[in-house]
Design goal:
- Two copies of one chain form a homodimer.
- With 237 residues, chain A is α+β, with helices and mostly antiparallel strands.
- Chain A has nine helices and eight strands.
- In chain A, strands 1, 2, 3, 4, 5 and 6 form a six-stranded antiparallel sheet that branches. A two-stranded antiparallel ribbon of chain A has the order 7-8.
- In chain A, helix 6 packs across helix 7, helix 6 runs antiparallel to helix 9 and helix 7 packs across helix 8.
- The longest helix of chain A is centred in the middle third of the chain and has 27 residues.
- Chain A binds a DNA duplex (30 and 30 nucleotides) through helix 8.
Chain lengths: 237, 237
DNA sequence: CGTGTGATTGACGCCTGTCAACGTCTGTGG
DNA sequence: CCACAGACGTTGACAGGCGTCAATCACACG
């Protein structure tokens, strides 16, 4: 959790190559560079808890963060994952609300932290930055609406197939077609919104149907069009 | 659909009493007043369709609009309702995407239309407006996340009870405790994400349990705490 | 080697979606 | 004024998807 000096220099996230920051002036950019607090977080670390006050936002430099809400009986509902170049925590700052989600590291991560005050100043003073951030937020909102529709209308089987496709898109496959994100069965069930046992049963059905291959938590994606068919994703991308 | 001059003068939505516009300068405000196109829309009118390009946004002056996505088999999923002072359509403008929802009038409405260009100029040039709009968007995003969790984790029965509570909060009850929004059974099912028949059955169970009373589409809310209990809404408001 | 977490499998039953039939109400046209 | 169509609401029957509970296995770690 402590600030490691050498990390600050390596961190590349707050530069113009990042869409969000491309319209910043030199001054604004160096301001961010000087202010930023680069941290390394091990798997399992919680960046912030649902219900807590957040005073800044995180830009992910490396690793994977899962963002979830806690629902009935403490059951977690994963809302999204954040990875390189994604930013998290800004929502609560801008809406002046407490954090509505918990952010937990699931793959060792490096993040840059910037204060909320700085963010608000940027929004107020740099119109183009404002537009970029607004775009980001609006896209997220569009995705959330999409997700609502899917979850409300699709069966668990369809949703699971869809999630596998989304994960493939977002994190990609390695040379052996193995998904570049590792999730427990329980985490998968907390994305889909179902019981762990159901995920296990459906995954082995997918395996029987030669759509995927399993070896522990490693998942090999064999047949993307097949999965899309199961997930009812006809006009996707 | 045509512009009725007298309406323009009555319309009050683009004023400083509206939170979103409270930081506008006199000049910006009169600009909006001059530009705005006030329209009356009868029930059933569609303001814009999913997948179409939107060139401006609507501020609702009066009436109710349902905002929905079209999912599997053309089944509609209602995302939210917009009423007095709500604005719709700005998301697509800011994210430079096609409309991801359809907006349909379900109670005769009066709206003010403002071009997207004007909106973007305001965001770019007025930092405080920018912040207000960002807050709005971020709140919506927070609500969407909430909704995702509910829909993924709750049973249809719980969700229906919850929706009734939400509708009560948003639209209120008249002197006879009758909900101030009228929906068909099918529309209710399209919010909850279930079959029409299920809604009908659950509603009559709620009626038997003295939680509500029904007479056609009019719904009397008898026992709010009871509904909250059914909907698992312990720490709500 | 004991302990704990995660994965798997089976049994069981309820919630909920689907299909079908029928009732109700409203508006339209002859 | 009546017949009819069409949209909406209601009820019943039925099957199956999926959640829950319980037992067992696999694996990592101190």
């Amino acid at each position: 959790m402590k600030n490691i000096p050498s990390l600050d220099d390596q961190a590349e996230c707050l530069t113009r190559s990042h869409t969000l920051f491309r319209h910043l002036s030199d001054k604004e950019l160096t301001g961010l560079q000087n202010e930023k607090l680069t941290e390394f977080h091990r798997r399992g670390t919680v960046l912030y808890h649902e219900g807590s006050r957040i005073n800044g936002f995180y830009c992910i430099e490396k690793g994977i963060i899962k963002v979830y809400k806690t629902g009935i009986d403490g059951r977690e509902q994963i809302i999204r994952f954040a990875r390189k170049e994604d930013i998290i925590g800004f929502r609560s700052i801008l809406s002046h609300e407490l954090a509505c989600t918990t952010a937990e590291v699931i793959e060792d991560a490096v993040t840059c932290y910037i204060s909320g005050e700085t963010l608000i100043n940027l929004v107020k003073n740099n119109g183009n930055f404002s537009i970029e951030l607004m775009q980001l937020t609006c896209r997220e909102l569009g995705e959330a609406n999409e997700y609502i529709t899917d979850i409300a209308q699709k069966t668990v089987r369809e949703r699971l197939a869809e999630i596998l496709i989304h994960l493939t898109d977002e994190f990609g496959l390695d040379d052996n077609k193995i998904l570049r994100i590792t999730l427990t069965r329980e985490e998968l069930s907390n994305i889909v919104g179902t019981a762990t046992e159901s995920v296990i049963r459906l995954l082995s059905e997918f395996k029987q149907d030669r759509l995927i291959e399993l070896s522990g938590r490693k998942m090999k994606i064999l047949n993307i069009p097949g999965l899309m068919k199961v997930g009812n994703l006809y006009n996707y991308k």
